[in-house]
Structure prediction request, 91 residues.
Amino acid sequence: MSQITPVDKNGRIIHQGMRVRIPSGTVITGTFEGGEKLAERTYTITVIAADEGYEATNDHFGNTPATAPRVCWAGSGGFWHYADAEAVEIV
Prediction:
């Protein structure tokens, strides 16, 4: 499986501890009730984890789906929040 490095919408590599801007309208997933929502406003957050993505592969067990790189942060209520790395911008 090939890994995909998490980069922002300007192609810059994202690392743990960086501050990034989540634009309004970005799909946010997480451990909160419902598991998915749209950002109602623009957020500036500190990245807890920058998760690598993976390209889809076809191995002898079947297809392995592609996973997009994402950023993770601690959101309101103590829930983990995630957004597609290519949707954010380093500040």
